[in-house]
Amino acid sequence: MTSPKVDVFQAIADPTRRKLLRLIDDREMAVTAISGHFPISRTAVSKHLRILADAGLVKERKVGRETRYRFEPEPLLELKRWLAYFDRFWDNKLSVLQHYVESDGSASTPSPARLQASTDKEKKE
């Protein structure tokens, strides 16, 4: 398998392309049908679809004179793996918030910022 011409991160950076992926996520559609869902020209939609295809996020198939597109989610695994690295930061923030919310709110209860600082300090040690 050859590597994609366009980085998946670049491909999904555009909101129109993200909407395109949602539109075709569960069905194959022709470019004419896809274009009807957007306030841009068919040519512009085709250009967006080309970028998504170059990133491996859509596959195209000729049916007569029509080109149909379908979503290919596999390249998004790269994005998922990249984001998974940052889950630990999100989970840490949630645990700090949970601790703060579940505390009695007394003056001796540290603020979320102080809890975060102590959690960060523990990680470094």
Overall description:
This protein folds into two domains: 64 residues, Orthogonal Bundle (Arc Repressor Mutant, subunit A), CATH 1.10.10.10; 42 residues. It has six helices and three strands. The chain has a three-stranded antiparallel β-sheet with strand order 1-3-2. Helix 5 packs across helix 6. The chain starts with 7 loop residues before the first helix and ends with a helix.
Report the total helices: 6
| Cα-based radius of gyration, to the nearest Å | 22 Å
Strands ordered across the widest β-sheet: 1-3-2
Overall CATH class of the largest domain: Mainly Alpha
The SSE order reads HHEHHEEHH
Beta-strand fraction estimate: 5-15%
CATH architecture of the largest domain: Orthogonal Bundle
Shape field: elongated
Q: Estimate percent helicity.
A: 55-70%
Task: Please give the number of β-strands.
Answer: 3
So, the CATH homologous superfamily of the largest domain?
Answer: Winged helix-like DNA-binding domain superfamily/Winged helix DNA-binding domain
Overall mean pLDDT: 84
Number of domains: 2
InterPro entries: ArsR-like_HTH (IPR011991), HTH_ArsR_DNA-bd_dom (IPR001845), HTH_MetalResp_TranReg (IPR051081), WH-like_DNA-bd_sf (IPR036388), WH_DNA-bd_sf (IPR036390)
Region (Disordered): 102-125
Protein name: ArsR/SmtB family transcription factor
Pfam families: HTH_5
